[in-house]
Predict the structure.
Amino acid sequence: MKAHNILPGVRQLSRLVNISSDAKRRLKWFDWYNFHGRNASLTCRHFAISPDTFYRWKRRYKRGALKTLEAESTRPKTFRKSKIPFETIKRIVDLRQKDMAFSKYKIKAILKRDFGICLSASSIGRILTSHGLIEKSTLVKGIKRRKRINWKIPRNRITFEHRYKSPGHLVQIDTKHVIVLSHTYYQLTAIDCYTRITYSKVYTTSTTDNSRDFLINLLLALPFKVEAIQTDNGHEFLFKFHAECINRGITHFFSRPRTPTDNSLVERMIESSVYELWLFDESLVPEIGYLNSRITAWSSRFNTYRPNQSLNYLTPMEYYQLKKKGEIYGRL
């Protein structure tokens, strides 16, 4: 291909000038066009382009100014300005900064519930993004270890008929290791599968005595009777814990080995506590009383303030009260 009919030394110039591959491709059009008798229709057939495209770029191109072969910016010159009041934007930013775990959907529910402000979740998400308040999750999943199974206690496996019938029909319990300044603590967490009401407590050791103590405190804390409990096959849920369930007439179900999806609700609840409490609190101190006060305050906030997406953005206590009054039938 020759380029001297367009401009002497144009090939060397195209190498020196920083132009895009699309601009170089258009330069080849006009090089071929000038070298083949300036035949526009023949050039269009050769490069499989429409005449409108060829003549549009021919009018735009100026010899010696290779930048004229670049496509113009498609960025809009004017943008739609947000009509959201500054006070609303400030409330959204304050809610997010106060609790970085609040998603745009939970903030939407809080704005409507507490301030009477109706705003779409997409608008809230754009505001959070523009203020740099959207962060990637830094949670790292730990290595799953195979637990030793003790077959001395009969394992009752739960069936579909035992799920989500009424408050207290099934409560899931699990343990989470909490590490604070190289000190290891054990967080026992329970959640009612129907109302999502939760209860948590932190212990220094993971034993059946502590699990039994947790069960007793759980039954006192819940506003309804517990009919069945589901746990994994951990040693802390055997012996004294299992005996306490039998003495109180509570059915004790065990999940299948190495199947955390059987306890999916409490697993998700523990993940929420990690993300919303332990991950962002830099003032934690390794003192059992302090840690229990923190987890108790967070559980109370979860039950009475934080909107729950699975409950159509009602809080667990709001949902339980409506169910108790007969204003809700079945699941939402």
